UniProtKB/TrEMBL annotation:
Pathway terms, separated by semicolons: Amine and polyamine biosynthesis; carnitine biosynthesis
Enzyme Commission no: 1.14.11.8
The protein, known as: Trimethyllysine dioxygenase, mitochondrial
Protein source organism: Kryptolebias marmoratus (Mangrove killifish)
Keyword field contains Repeat: no
Domain Gamma-butyrobetaine hydroxylase-like N-terminal, residue spans: 50-119
Length: 407
């Protein structure tokens, strides 16, 4: 499946960006909008054939997706039609294709028009082979040799083009950096708010911590942390993680980054059955905290891998061996196979060539796609002060779309 998804590309030094990220979504309209098309009204659907590719649309879907002013608001893309008022057996009384437009007349006289390009782009046949999110999958060597530029604080805060370049890199690679940020919690908050809303969690809005064991989570120690995704014990894990190292007087403490999707796609190609198992078997994650005034008990249940059902595209990896709780959601024989699949994924995630090590110095803020890129850290000595926050995924992607990026 990996090889057939448009836009899911492997990186190479000097690569060009996927087209969807070089052009806006609007300008990426179906190229053959005015190409000749043939039309057939079948018993239960309309078949439109363009460039030799037949695409089928059910009649009730066509009426429900009428783009006329009485049925649809083109400014907000919201529906005005009451779908429940449409007979499920509805069928057009006439149909014609002319000048790139399909025109349907319905019983009662209502007329619907659709551009052929819009129909092609919104057909199931198109959607099932199109990537929702074009990405560049990376190993450490690929990422380093690509030399992805960091955004610069001043320009980032004032120039939409700089923000757009930053988000383009973030969408492609799952990580992006801003350099030159003042080493304060306030400046870190400002730089994140340039991108999106902050997601407040039990750890606060902006968190700032030293290795003082003030909270129960292992992050609040000096210990090394193996690669993981955060908040796996939230039913919807936090979308984006932001880190800023404000101070470190000591040694060690480098940040580990691993492209989880790169590892998973390798697993999918080599062992599709194991991929399916990890995408199907639900696993619990849990976190209990009883520290000072903090009382928390978080539980989430979901598969390690989440894919869109219509195209099997991966959109979320939930991988945290610290927080994985009792597996009691599958029979023993499935569990045995699940462990084999999980072990193979772990081996892939632990390949040294997949480990990107970064030293976060004061001034360098990193944004991590917590649904894709795993993070960890090496142990450290001395005083280390880190701050950061989580961002709401929906709002980050919304910002990207408003800037004309596919997200
Ligand atoms: Fe973490």
């Amino acid at each position: 499946m990996f090889g057939t998804l448009r836009g899911l590309v492997r990186a190479a030094p000097g690569h060009r960006l996927p087209r969807a990220l070089r052009e806006s979504r609007t300008s990426r309209r179906y190229a053959s909008a005015r190409a000749s098309a043939t039309l057939r009204l079948l018993e239960d659907c309309l078949e439109l054939c363009q460039d030799g590719a037949p695409r089928r649309f059910s009649y009730v879907w066509l009426r429900d997706h009428c783009r006329s002013a009485s049925s649809y608001d083109p400014a907000t893309h919201q529906r005005r039609l009451d779908t429940a008022s449409v007979q499920l057996t509805i069928r057009p009384s006439s149909a014609a294709v002319d000048d790139g437009l399909l025109t349907l007349t319905w019983p009662g006289g209502h007329v619907s028009q659709y551009s052929l390009g819009w129909l092609a782009e919104n057909s199931y046949e198109w959607k099932k082979q199109a990537a929702v999110q074009p990405r560049v999958l990376w190993s450490a060597g690929v990422y380093e040799s690509t030399d992805v530029p960091s955004a610069k604080w001043d320009k980032f805060m004032s120039c939409d083009d700089e923000l757009k370049k930053f988000l383009r890199n973030y969408l492609l690679y799952g990580i992006a950096f801003v350099d030159g940020v003042p080493a304060t919690v306030e400046a870190t908050e400002s730089v994140t708010q340039r991108v999106s809303l902050i997601r407040e969690t039990t750890y606060g809005r902006m968190w700032s911590f030293t290795s003082d064991f003030s909270r129960g989570d292992s992050a609040y120690s000096q210990l090394a942390l193996d690669r993981h995704t955060d908040t796996s014990y939230f039913q919807e894990p936090c979308g984006i993680q932001v880190f800023h190292c404000l101070k470190h007087e000591g040694t060690g403490g480098r940040t580990l980054l691993v492209d989880g999707f790169h590892a998973v796609e390798t697993l999918r190609r080599r062992s599709p059955g194991k991929f399916e198992l990890l995408a199907r078997v639900p696993i619990g994650h849990e976190y209990i905290e009883n520290t000072g005034s903090h009382r928390n008990h978080m539980v989430a249940i979901g598969p390690v891998l989440n894919t869109y059902p219509w195209n099997n595209e991966l959109y979320l990896i939930r991988y945290n061996n610290y927080d994985r709780s009792v597996i009691n959601t599958a029979p023993h024989d499935t569990v045995q196979r699940w462990y084999k699949a999980h072990r193979e994924l772990t081996a892939e995630l632990r390949r040294p060539e997949n480990e990107l090590w970064v030293k976060l110095n004061p001034g360098k803020v990193i944004f991590i796609d917590n649904w894709r890129v795993l993070h960890g850290r090496e142990s450290f000595s001395g005083l280390r002060q880190l701050c950061g926050c989580y961002l709401t995924r929906d709002d980050v992607l919304s910002t990207a779309r408003c800037l004309g990026l596919q997200a």
